[in-house]
């Protein structure tokens, strides 16, 4: 079994994480429902599948804040977002 796409939704927005079979990149699309003035409603990342763990954790932090609308604790980011992203990395 292979997970190719996951959608995550929080109180402030949602994100889609995908890596098609054979692809060497992870694509992430993130949408914030009601962005702050001057804020960015839509963000897209194209990450190498062999991304550094620290960089992947940073992306998890950004996705968590965009989905939930506020910064999370390290344990929330690690358990709920980073571990999901790890499924798509090499």
Describe this structure in words.
The chain has one domain (5-86). It has two helices and four strands, in the order ββββαα. The protein has helices at residues 53-68, 74-86; strands spanning 5-9, 13-18, 25-32, 42-48. It has a four-stranded antiparallel beta sheet with strand order 1-2-3-4, covered by helices on one side. Strand 1 (5-9) and strand 2 form a beta hairpin.
Layout of helices and strands:
Blueprint lengths: L4 E5 L3 E6 L6 E8 L9 E7 L4 H16 L5 H13 L4
Antiparallel strand pairs: 1-2, 2-3, 3-4
Helix pairs in contact: 1-2
> Which parts are unreliable, with pLDDT below 50 for 5 consecutive residues or more?
none
Biggest sheet features: 4 strands, antiparallel
Count of discrete structural domains: 1
Query: Termini separation (Å)?
Result: 16 Å
Radius of gyration: 13 Å
Dominant shape:
globular
Question: What fraction, in percent, of the residue positions are helical?
Answer: 25-40%
Strand numbers in spatial order across the main sheet = 1-2-3-4
Percent strand equals 25-35%
Order of helices and strands: EEEEHH
Number of helices: 2
Write down the overall mean pLDDT. 94
């Amino acid at each position: 079994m292979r997970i190719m796409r996951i959608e995550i939704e929080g109180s402030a927005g949602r994100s889609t994480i995908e890596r098609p079979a054979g692809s060497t990149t992870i694509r992430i699309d993130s949408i914030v429902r009601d962005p702050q003035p001057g804020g960015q409603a839509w963000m897209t990342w194209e990450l190498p599948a062999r991304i550094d763990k620290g960089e992947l954790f940073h992306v998890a932090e950004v996705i968590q804040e965009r989905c939930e609308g506020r910064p999370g604790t390290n344990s929330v980011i690690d358990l709920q977002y980073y571990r999901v992203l790890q499924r798509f990395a090499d």
